[in-house]
Amino acid sequence: MKHADLVELIKDGVTERGQRWADLGAGEGAFTLALADLLGPGAHITAVDRDAGALRRLGLEMGERFPDVAVATKVADFTRPLGLSGLDGVLMANSLHFVRDKAPVLESVRGMLQPGGKLVVVEYGSDRGNPWVPHPFTFERWTQMAAQAGFEGTRLLRTIPSRHLGSMYSALSLSPSGRGLG
Ligand SMILES: C[S@@+](CC[C@H](N)C(=O)[O-])C[C@H]1O[C@@H](n2cnc3c(N)ncnc32)[C@H](O)[C@@H]1O
């Protein structure tokens, strides 16, 4: 996919500039670059992946194309504690489908976000996996999983056709704002 298409897919979930986000399962950074484009100068992105080589390439590309966006790369398994907190947003693009039991990861992502923080998920629109995409989930299932994990306001952003598993979608969920408590 072209950079402009990736930007289009997530842009309604990334509407404020200069924020602090993390990209979990960032790989070589195709979506990190889209995120950087949308967040603009002054933003900070922590790109997490267990593949150190992919993150090295991501760092180089980010430095060339978006030098005004700070990027920190972190070689880590996002199913384990990452030590991130107070983030404005988290992006998980085609990475959550590698995890069978998603609830603990979603709980940890919620803990990384400030109240009202955004979780943008990009996923294939199927509940049936294959060896390359082992545990995908439709938007309908995502709505349930996100609610069970305590996220609010889950909504579909975009759906596009995909050669793999028929379609790909983006969705936005919010961490609880804390309003209405007490
Ligand atoms: C299909 S690629 C997607 C990369 C990028 N988000 C994109 O859409 O272009 C999935 C990435 O998730 C990473 N990944 C999968 N499970 C992971 C885990 N538990 N911890 C860290 N990275 C993981 C893989 O190493 C791979 O780079």
Fold blueprint:
Blueprint: H1 3-10, E1 20-24, H2 30-39, E2 44-49, H3 52-65, E3 70-75, E4 87-93, H4 103-112, E5 113-124, H5 139-148, E6 152-162, E7 166-174
Parallel strand pairs: 1-2, 1-4, 2-3, 4-5
Antiparallel strand pairs: 5-7, 6-7
The structure holds S-adenosylmethionine.
S-adenosylmethionine binds next to helix 2.
Please, what is the average pLDDT?
96
Order of helices and strands: HEHEHEEHEHEE
Beta-strand percentage range: 25-35%
Number of strands: 7
The strand line-up of the biggest sheet is 3-2-1-4-5-7-6
Shape, principal axes of CA atoms: globular
Bound molecules: S-adenosylmethionine
Q: What's the helical proportion of residues?
A: 25-40%
CATH architecture: 3-Layer(aba) Sandwich
Fold-level CATH name: Rossmann fold
Number of helices: 5
The termini sit apart by 46 Å
Q: Calculate Rg over CA atoms.
A: 15 Å
Q: Could you please describe the fold and organization of this structure?
A:
The structure is a single chain. The chain has helices at residues 3-10, 30-39, 52-65, 103-112, 139-148; strands at residues 20-24, 44-49, 70-75, 87-93, 113-124, 152-162, 166-174. With 182 residues, it is an alpha/beta fold. Helices cover 29% and strands 31% of the residues. The chain contains five helices and seven strands. Helix 1 crosses helix 2 (30-39) and helix 2 (30-39) runs parallel beside helix 3 (52-65). It has a seven-stranded mixed beta sheet. It has one domain: Rossmann fold, CATH 3.40.50. The N and C termini lie far apart (46 Å). The protein binds S-adenosylmethionine.
